[in-house]
Every structure is written in structure tokens, then in C-alpha cells.
UniProtKB/TrEMBL annotation:
Catalysed reactions, as listed in the record: L-proline + NADP(+) = (S)-1-pyrroline-5-carboxylate + NADPH + 2 H(+); L-proline + NAD(+) = (S)-1-pyrroline-5-carboxylate + NADH + 2 H(+)
Pathway: Amino-acid biosynthesis; L-proline biosynthesis; L-proline from L-glutamate 5-semialdehyde: step 1/1
Domain of life the protein comes from: Bacteria
Species of origin: Paenibacillus cineris
Enzyme class: oxidoreductase
Protein name as it appears in the record: Pyrroline-5-carboxylate reductase
Stated family: Belongs to the pyrroline-5-carboxylate reductase family.
Pyrroline-5-carboxylate reductase dimerisation domain: residues covered: 159-262
Keywords carried by this UniProt record: Amino-acid biosynthesis, Cytoplasm, NADP, Oxidoreductase, Proline biosynthesis
């Protein structure tokens, strides 16, 4: 199987390198292009054998699967660029939430899918949200998920829930890191303790908490109860968090969904969908 990457920025390069490092792909199976070519050349230097393509059409022409790893409003131009080189047996995969499966199917003759990956895939972790277009057959799906499985847990989701699920799986690492960063900053300022050591302690805590939720049979509420000694320290701090963060998660969801809606309307306009003039 030959796999193309159009856009090798943060997520494109992460996916590409995670798939190579996990053994899921050999470098010579990979074709990649990027607006700024130096980024692909650097990847080739790290992974000899990787094919640097000088145009997106060249990446598309040479690949069975093509990951589109660019920002939502850059999709339409790239689809226009590669559309005429694509064949019906190829598969194009979007990695961004606002571009809809119907946008891709309306613009391309090939099979289409949409995934929302996570930065956690760099360490063979995290859920990869998968959505498939109408031209994808069961065997295509199995082959595709076989490719992703060494770096992630692929799960099928309904496209209508893409935003809320990717808030957790894909934005989540940033949100939790924000929380930890603020916490560690306060700890350093208050105590003068070494930031690196505090960060390591926090990371191990996060890893263990994740394992308790995924393997240990705990719900988040049960975990809180298990840690909270009645009348103890955790209870006091949880009460502070509860009163300080009232409504924040509803506002967070309103914010991510608001930005998604804005980008979706722009994509609809570009693709001639419901939002088009
Ligand atoms: N970061 C994350 O954790 C996640 C990101 N995503 C999605 O991934 C997508 C990319 O995000 P991210 O990687 O973070 O963004 P980046 O800005 O890091 O990467 C985008 C890349 O696309 C390249 N590019 C832009 N236009 C073209 C073009 N016409 N042809 C070829 N390459 C082009 C850019 O090139 P140049 O070097 O010139 O800027 C850049 O390298 C987004 O849609 C985002 O929603 C999804 C899940 C998680
Ligand atoms: O910040 C973003 O737009 C992307 C979407 C999911 C994670 N990062």
C-alpha cells in the first residue's frame, strides 16, 4: 500500500512519523508534499526512502490512500488541484472536523473518509474518530483501520457528533495541559520546587488516571469519591474547583461548537453547499 500526505505541518508530520515508527508503514511507502517543501525534505532526511513530491497532484497520483492534513479552508483549493488525477479505487481522508463527508464526495470521484486524530497517537495512544463515505466498502474500512491500529484506537462515530467527541479526544490534550500548566506554575511560584520534577509527577498522575478510567473500571465520579477522604484535604479543594468552574464546560463546548459552525459555513460556501450564496 502506498500512502500520501498532503500537508506535513504539526498533525500531518505527526501521523506520518507515528505510522513509520510503529512499523505500520515503511518510509518507501510514503509520498508527501507540503506548501513549504523544506518540511517534507526534513522528513525524508529523518526517514530515508520517503518520497518527496513536488506537487500535491504528484502525491495524489502515486498513493492508494491520501491523507489531507491542511486547515479546513485550504481543502477546496487542494481538491480542485488533485481531483482530476484521482481514480475511483483511491481513498482520500480528511483529518479536520468542519469539512464534511458530503463536501468531499461532491468534489471527488474516489472513496472518502474523515478521521479526527489526536496528538496522543505519537505515543501509540488515544482514540482516532473515524467516519466513512458511501463509497467505502467493509474491506476498505478494515484495511484502513488495520493501518491506524498500531498508533491509535480507531472508533466509528456519527459525523453529527464529530465536534463534541473531538473536543475530548483531539483538543483534550491541550485543555488538560492548560490545566496542568497553570497548576504547575502555581506550585513553582508557591514552593520553589523544580518544574521538571513537578511536571513528571503530574504526567505520571495523568497516565495513571487514564488507566483507571480505561482499564480500572472507574468513572470520573467514582475516582473522586475514592480519593476524597471525608472531611479531608481533597474535599476542600474539590469544593473550591466546583464553585470556581461553574458553567465553564458549557461555555467551552459553546466556544468549540461556535468556531466549528463558523468554519462549516465557510466550507459550505466554498463547496457550494447550504451556506453558499
Ligand atoms: N494539531 C492537532 O492536534 C490536530 C489537528 N487536526 C487538523 O489537522 C489539520 C492541520 O492542522 P495542523 O497540522 O495542526 O496545522 P499546521 O498549520 O501545522 O499544518 C498545515 C500544513 O498544511 C500545509 N499546507 C497549507 N496549504 C497547503 C497546500 N496548498 N498544499 C500543501 N500543503 C499545504 C502547510 O504548509 P506550510 O508549511 O507552508 O505552512 C502546513 O504545513 C487541521 O485541519 C486541524 O483541524 C486534527 C486533529 C488534531
Ligand atoms: O485546533 C484545532 O483547530 C484542531 C482541531 C482539533 C485539534 N486541533
Amino acid at each position: 500500500m502506498k500512502v500520501g500526505f498532503i500537508g506535513t505541518g504539526s498533525m500531518g508530520s505527526l501521523l506520518l512519523e507515528a505510522l513509520i515508527d510503529s512499523g505500520s508503514l515503511a518510509p518507501n511507502q510514503v509520498y508527501a508534499s507540503n506548501r513549504t517543501p523544506e518540511k517534507v525534505i526534513r522528513l525524508q532526511q529523518r526517514h530515508p526512502g520517503l518520497h518527496v513530491c513536488t506537487s500535491n497532484a504528484e502525491t495524489a497520483h502515486n498513493s492508494d490512500l491520501i491523507f489531507l492534513c491542511v486547515k479546513p479552508l485550504q481543502f477546496k483549493a487542494i481538491l480542485d488541484e488533485i481531483g482530476s488525477t484521482l481514480r475511483p479505487d483511491q481513498m482520500v481522508i480528511s483529518i479536520t472536523s468542519p469539512v464534511q463527508i458530503h463536501h468531499l464526495e461532491s468534489a471527488l470521484c474516489c472513496k472518502v473518509a474523515k478521521i479526527i486524530p489526536s496528538v496522543a497517537h505519537r505515543v501509540q495512544s488515544g482514540v482516532c474518530l473515524c467516519m466513512y463515505g458511501s463509497r467505502i466498502k467493509e474491506e476498505d474500512r478494515q484495511l484502513f483501520e488495520h493501518l491506524l491500529s498500531p498508533i491509535s484506537k480507531p472508533i466509528l462515530i456519527d459525523e453529527s457528533f464529530v465536534r463534541i467527541t473531538s473536543d475530548l479526544s483531539s483538543c483534550g490534550p491541550a485543555f488538560l495541559s492548560f490545566f496542568l500548566d497553570q497548576w504547575i506554575n502555581a506550585a513553582v511560584e508557591t514552593t520553589g520546587m523544580d518544574r521538571g520534577e513537578l511536571t513528571w509527577i503530574a504526567g505520571e498522575m495523568l497516565l495513571g488516571t487514564g488507566k483507571l478510567l480505561t482499564q480500572g473500571g472507574f468513572t470520573p465520579l467514582e475516582l473522586q469519591k475514592r480519593v476524597t477522604v471525608p472531611g479531608g484535604i481533597t474535599a476542600e479543594a474539590l469544593a473550591l474547583l466546583d464553585s470556581s468552574l461553574t458553567g465553564v464546560f458549557h461555555r467551552l463546548i459553546a466556544t468549540t461548537h461556535g468556531k466549528y459552525k463558523e468554519d462549516l459555513e465557510k466550507c459550505d460556501a466554498q463547496f457550494g453547499g447550504p451556506g453558499a450564496d
